[in-house]
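FORM 7B: Structural annotation worksheet

SECTION A. Query
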Amino acid sequence: MDSSHESIGPDADRRAFLKAAAVAPAAGLASGALAQEAAQKPKELPRRKLGRTGVEVTMLEQGGIRGPTYDRILRLAFANGIRTFDSAKVYRTEGTVGKWIEQSPEIRKQIFLVTKDMPREPGEMLKQVDERLAELKTDYIDLFFIHGLGDMHSTDQAVKLVKSKELAEVADKLKKSGKIRFIGFSSHHKDRWAMMEAAAEGGIIDAMMIQYRPWLDKESPLNKAIDACWKKGVGIISMKQIAGNYFGDKPTGDILDDVVKRVPLLKERNLSPYQGLLHAIWTDERISSVCVSMRNTDQLRENAAAARNYEPVKAAQIEELRDALLAAGPTLCADCDGRCSKAAGTTAALGDLTRFLTYYQQHGDRAIAREEYAGLAAEARDWAGADLEAARAACPGNLDFARLLPEVDRRLA
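SECTION B. Predicted structure
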């Protein structure tokens, strides 16, 4: 889903969605207290099986972040019990991970390392895996993902790829060489459900990372695809759970207090809205881990505590949390399957347009947002004449397209 881009500083974060209300300054990461915390013998977080792989991964995964603080974040994540770490070529984070492994080689066998690249054809992965190994300073990758499946392929091409003979042969060769243990893909594409069903049928894909929220309609294509993967033992990692005007680094007003007031569960369990969301996601036993790009000690401690204190959430409580979070003004719909565009009577990719705006406004990935926007076909960018109220009514995330799309044109065009 990405392509090479310039690093835009420590605030750039491709998948930042769980933010503490008060952000610890980056300088604080270098304090003696934090150094001592990182040096302490860590207690691992609870684990779950990653599908049929037989491997158990920590329920919380450290996502990749850019900037000079990432080296400390990796060590603090480890100190807080996280053992699953995400990276990718386009994030430009592999060098930092490689430095960590090089300086502390004993941690390599203790962590489950994920990275990604963007092959158009399976055969390209042979060279790409070698490049990723060199960057990561390791001789094996635990899980190699085809990055953003569907972004560089049509839906039909992606469906064919995940169950193709060529992919099976390449995956087998890479596994037998010891360079990778497992193979999979990440996707936020509106038709990811079709790719997931094909992967379940093909039996080649071991795991996947998908855009997800815990209040999926049971009859939705995405929920049925998750079921198909669950039954066939394909591991699932959740990503891009939430993003919105009040869920960035600096929440405005009393929106977080309002969410707590509307969801009694949070007060009863002494949880923040973000911890409540994590509990709701983990209540879905089909989800093995949640990937979060945590960028400071507050986020790490808060989310690690959520994993240690996890208890299942009742369906009615998940609905309360859903209603409160949707009312907070999200800018990204994690359930997007294109129904908004159909309802609006437009060929514009409304879900992609608002997602790119989220990258720009919420995640700080301005270069990526503009690049992704420019990569869309002209008709996918042109929302003129679309019935935006109908789009909002159809959107599972209740996105206010009439407010967001003019911002897309202003910021990204």
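SECTION C. Observations
The radius of gyration is 20 Å. Confidence is low (pLDDT under 50) at residues 1-31, 244-253.

SECTION D. Sign-off
Analyst initials: ____
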